[in-house]
Amino acid sequence: MKAGYKLFYFLAVFYAVVAVVYWQLGGEPLGITAIALSGGLAITIGFYLWTNDKRMGLQPSDNVEGEIADLAGELGFFSPHSWWPLPLALSACAMGLGLVIGWWLTVIAVGSLVVSIIGFTTEYEKPGLSSHH
Question: What predicted TM-score, i.e. pTM, was given to this entire model?
């Protein structure tokens, strides 16, 4: 994990330097913005990896003497079947297509995208359970 956040922090500094050099050499505004936003994205991912590294502590992948078997065990829960990615992807495609066809389609697609995201994230929630018993 340590290599991951260090890599993204390095990329953020690299993109910042490249954006300044590109700006000084008379680069176009769109290119400068794209490079600067790439640096911001690298900072965001680096910060996420850094906070996870601090929360999880030393991982087997950080040990230079580590073995592959050190990573054995349960990785998490993976849904065996779910239909929610299909409406999620179709809503995202319709939203992008709405930018070309008309804003009315974008508004409809954003509504279905919100419903799809809620359905996808709450798919395995138990109905009827609340914290107040």
Answer: 0.57
